[in-house]
Amino acid sequence: MVRRIDVTGSGGVRLAAWEFTDPPKAGGEGVERKHNGRGPGVLLLHGLMGRAAHWAETARWLGARYRPVGLDQRGHGRSEKPADGPFDRMTYVDDAIAAIEELHLAPVALIGHSMGALTAWQIAARRPDLVSALVICDMRASALGAASQREWEEWFRSWPVPFATLADVRKWFGEDDPTLERPRPVRGEFFAEVMAERADGWRPVFSRRQMLAVREAWVHDAHWEELALVECPTLVVRGLDGELGRAEAQEMVRVLPRGAYAEIADAGHLVPWERPDDWRRVLEPFLHTALPSLPV
């Protein structure tokens, strides 16, 4: 079961949160309580252009022990897309903190992919009282710079929008995108989930202009100082062919007061979706060790 819960984010922006376990039953005890939202809270934060629904498979197995909730961050999914933002880093952090507090998830484990991972470690640095554990999946701490932002602008302009069919979406993002070094069918499926049918064809559910504004807020800065402020157990996960290089990932682990490292072969940037079994294999024991025991 999945249910939508509306959350009020920073500045009154409406955010869509998605709970992937049944709500607790009155008077439930023991094993029943463990499987009805009474386990430790887990907040799943997607990356740029993503949506909470991307976490559905991870949330299904998390739901056996925890209370997994996915958040459509502002500008994404079913959450509000304010025309003029703001889209700065602290607004994203404040939005997620509002979700944690309104949904009574604290102390929460934060699992973030790409941009969502940056949001997660900024929350952990700013509000350690709210966070019990952190998972950083394929997000760099170093500044990416202006050249990187220009590359993204060019990439967005290359999209053949609108797409005639969802099959065309899957093919372009999974095979035909000139930035790909080799076909990645999972990438095609990933982007198919963030398209909606309009009168003239299939278009992204987000604004590419807004996505550039969101990215502009972090690409020029390094985030090592915030990483060093994270007090909770933290797992840094990278795909062997991902955007986060091995040397930088290991340096992030060194900077983190309680950091651990995991590397997944045959995976690129979309680690949890390209190698779901390996993702679970590295994530499950970390959470089991880092999170408080379930009540008996």
Provide structural commentary.
The chain is an alpha/beta fold and 296 residues long. 39% of the residues lie in helices and 19% in strands. The protein contains twelve helices and ten strands. The chain has helices spanning 30-34, 56-62, 89-102, 115-126, 146-158, 166-176, 185-192, 208-219, 224-228, 246-255, 271-274, 276-290, and strands at 3-8, 14-19, 41-45, 67-72, 108-113, 131-137, 195-198, 201-204, 234-239, 259-264. The strands form two sheets. It has an eight-stranded mixed beta sheet, sandwiched between helices. Strands 7-8 form a two-stranded antiparallel sheet. Helix 6 packs antiparallel against helix 7 (185-192). The protein is globular. It starts with a strand and ends in a 6-residue tail after the last helix. Mean pLDDT is 94; it is low at 27-37.
